[in-house]
Amino acid sequence: MLDTVREIETPEGISLHLRAAGALPRAQAWMVDLLLRMGMFMVAMIPLSLLGVGGNGLAMLLMFALMWAYWVVCEVWLGGQTLGKRALGLRVVNADGTPVTWLPSVVRNLLRAVDALPGVYGVGLASTLIDPYGRRLGDIVAGTMVIHASELPTGQQVPAAAAVPLPLVLAADEQAALVEFAERSGQLTLQRQEELANLLTPLTARSDTAAVRQLIAHANWLLGRP
Amino acid sequence: MKQQRFVKLHEREWDSLQSWLSALDRQAKRTLRQEQALDFPSSYRRVCHHLALARGRGYSHEITDRLQRLVQQGHRVLYRAPAPRWHRVAGFLVAGFPRLVRAQWRCMAAAAVLFYVPALVTLVLMQLRPELAHAVFSSAQLADFEKMYDPANAHIGRSSGTDMQMFGFYVMNNVSIAFRTFASGLFFGVGAIYVLGANGVLIGGVAGHLTAIGCGGPFWRFVVGHSPFELTALVIAGGAGLQLGLTLLAPGRQRRGPALVAAGWVGAQLALGAFAMLLVAAFIEAYWSSIAALPDALKFGSGALLWLLVLGWLWRGGRAGTHGA
């Protein structure tokens, strides 16, 4: 429930990180889709109403398409995103992390009828809360999941400073911790930076702002900057 | 190798791959025709290698995050499914669908029993005890049926509306019922059993009641044309639902998850086939069945022919030898 990141190993031996989307953004995307479809239907009704009774038949065909086909067509053609999902930055993917294909999309959207059952998406809500990856029943049977498509902002860069070699050899994880501190220093308040840097006074032989500067200089050296 | 040097060595490749992938998002067709598209798979795999190296050597997040993003974007492009091919639709309808129905013949037979037995029992009961009609339908419904199948009506099977309107209505109504029948099978098959049985009683009830009161002629003339497609599609959708529920109950020698995914694929194909059949049924029902002024021989003859056609299609379609499949 808490960790919604799913790792999928690719044939290259790299793991992909997919962030499962929970019930709330999906409900919002569904709402956007609902409004859009209602809007499309109303706009189409204007010319159809001029056709008289036969127009009713066309209107019902359109309603059928908006009820059942809209999801599949959008998901397959727009790379796993209906218009609502695109607005909310969500994407439907197959189990291997690729955009959803025909049959899985048909399965998950036919079984929408089950997920939507008691009232508004009661079964689907229960299922997304229970499943570790927030899948509704249709997703489980189709082998798909809904993920956040937008990329997280990448980490900040280590501030540039003249490199100073470390006075002693540090283990790999200690080096990584030092570089991470330098990378994140921009996001920390000055006081917190100093508090953390003061823990390493035995290494830097300095305190407060000078210690922070020294650690950033060491990090620059570890990265191989001049 | 220090991180800075590693970045210097490979940064140009990452940048060019990144710009190619971004261009692909904007103008897919043109970008795929570029020379660089040929180089993409090997370039992508090199970047995967760089990411593994960067993780192994403990480089900072600045590099690993950037490469991770690039790899995820590339993965989406390299492993995406090929575009759907439309000629396979015809192949599926002619051969693949009947084969699939035959492969699931146990569920289909069960669905047929669940539908036709209540229908026939109701039909026979209505002949013996006509007052039973009031137990199944309200008097307003009965009056509506009697009006729809009144022998004096020029358009049988409907109380008002044009062909086009009824076509839209039949598609919307029947296909939605078929899709829901399939989906509700996920509740251990209970939903599909209920829908099949209830529809059996309803259809048998209408037929029985109209036959009992002497409006049977127009009714049978109306339904004989589209029933082969409509009833068979309903049974197939129900069978697909049963198959899904049965997999949930008894997945066999597989874990439930993978077994359900496989059953879902089969079920979706069956539902799509049923959808195609219901489109045909709605077309016949709206444009052919409703014509009252045709001789009985033509109506019943064409109906019998269509029944033979549908059953023959499901029985022989896609067999080796007939289609070389």
Structure overview:
The complex is a heterodimer of chains A (about 230) and B (about 325). Chain A is mainly α. Chain A folds into two domains: about 140 residues, no CATH class; about 50 residues, no CATH class. In chain A, helix 2 crosses helix 4, helix 8 crosses helix 11 and helix 9 crosses helix 11. Chain A is elongated. The relative contact order of chain A is 0.10. Chain B is mainly alpha-helical and about 325 residues long. Chain B has two domains: about 80 residues, no CATH class; about 230 residues, no CATH class. In chain B, helix 11 runs antiparallel to helix 12. Chain B is elongated. Chains A and B meet through helix 2, helix 4, helix 5, helix 7 and helix 8 of A and helix 1, helix 3, helix 4, helix 9 and helix 12 of B.
List the helices and strands and how they pair.
The complex is a heterodimer of chains A (226) and B (325).
Chain A: E1 5-9, E2 15-19, H1 23-49, H2 53-77, H3 83-88, E3 90-94, H4 102-110, H5 112-115, H6 122-130, H7 137-142, E4 144-148, H8 172-184, H9 190-198, H10 201-204, H11 208-223
Antiparallel strand pairs in A: 1-2, 3-4
Chain B: H1 3-26, H2 28-33, H3 36-56, H4 61-78, H5 87-103, H6 105-128, H7 133-136, H8 139-148, H9 163-184, H10 190-213, H11 216-249, H12 256-287, H13 296-316
